[in-house]
Design goal:
The protein is α/β, with parallel strands linked by helices. Helix content is 25%, strand content 20%.
């Protein structure tokens, strides 16, 4: 089975790269276990003062070959493309901790890179979408007493827009379907580590790592695009997060593409534009031509043709 979303590479850029943008490669945001973790930073020709953190992740694996700016600099967003440690060496809980560090790093260096530290969005697809939602629901204050000034910064983000994310491992295809390294996601047991070897461990992991179980009223606004024929990450996951957010009184929009599976539909360019409008609204205060419903909307999808 292909890794949980090789489709990160299928997501089409919604705008062409800006000719005047600057790329800063391999900026180290943390070091541990003999490993340096990096991000590439794209500075747009005409910055709008906001930043997008773009998580490179498929099946909780990350590599530099997948780095691209996603078209965000062309829309004025300074873009921080983050590569994380790859499973099975790095388990999901450690990956989440490192991504919290990445957000703190961006916020600590916001002035240097010309962004407002209170205007940070995060995006990703599949595993990258899950990690985006973990930042959206569990990002929080830094330690004001930390020796490292980066660790004093908040890891909270201000808006989220992502594609087909796993959101609740305890209730995956339906209620009480635990997929924390088992069931539909048994092929990804290495991502969850040794705790996934027992039912008790999977129960704890599922609760710790399920953003749908951590929703709160004051979480950042979340936009999710999801195909209704997705077998790997079923639409139940997008709906689960939406329902929990609605119950909590948080802003969420679920954009459903009908008839398409995991990451493979031609209209992704259109969806990226809608995500840009989501960030424009919640980071810049720019109203879209077509208002958001903050509900569930259905849209026809066209599967990508196999090469």
């Amino acid at each position: 089975m292909k890794s949980l979303l090789c489709a990160a590479g299928l997501i089409w850029s919604f705008l062409s790269a800006a000719s005047g943008q600057e790329r800063i490669r391999d900026v180290i945001y943390t070091k541990h276990d003999g490993v340096a973790l990096t991000m590439d930073i794209y500075k747009p020709e005409k910055p709008n003062g906001a930043g997008i953190i773009k998580i490179i992740s498929g099946g909780w694996k990350s590599n530099h070959l997948q780095i691209n700016d996603g078209g965000w600099p062309a829309a004025g967003y300074t873009t921080f493309v983050v590569v994380h440690g790859t499973q099975p060496r790095f388990h999901v809980d450690k990956i989440v901790a490192d991504l919290n560090r990445a957000v703190r790093f961006v916020r600590a260096n916001a002035e240097k890179y010309g962004v407002d530290p209170q205007k940070l969005g995060v995006t990703g697809s599949s595993a990258g979408g899950h990690l985006s939602l973990m930042l959206g629901t569990r990002g929080g204050p830094g330690d004001p007493q930390a020796h490292d000034p980066v660790e004093r910064q908040s890891s909270a983000v201000n808006a989220v827009a992502c594609f087909h994310p796993p959101t609740d491992f305890l209730n995956y295809r339906q209620m009480d379907d635990n997929a924390a390294g088992s069931g539909r996601l048994a092929a990804y047991a290495g991502a969850f580590g040794p705790r996934a070897e027992t039912p008790e461990g999977r129960e704890v992991l599922g609760r710790e790592l399920s953003p749908a179980l951590w929703v709160r009223k004051d979480q950042p606004p979340v936009f999710i695009a999801h195909g209704d024929a997705d077998d790997l990450v079923p639409l139940f996951q997008g709906k689960r997060f939406f329902d929990r957010s609605t119950e909590a009184g948080a802003k969420c929009e679920l954009w459903v593409r009908n008839g398409v599976g995991h990451g493979g539909w031609q209209e992704m360019k259109e969806d990226n534009v809608r995500m840009r409008e989501w960030f424009d609204l919640h980071l810049l205060g720019k109203q879209p031509a077509v208002p958001f419903t903050f509900g569930i909307t259905n849209h026809p999808g066209t599967p990508l043709k196999k090469p």
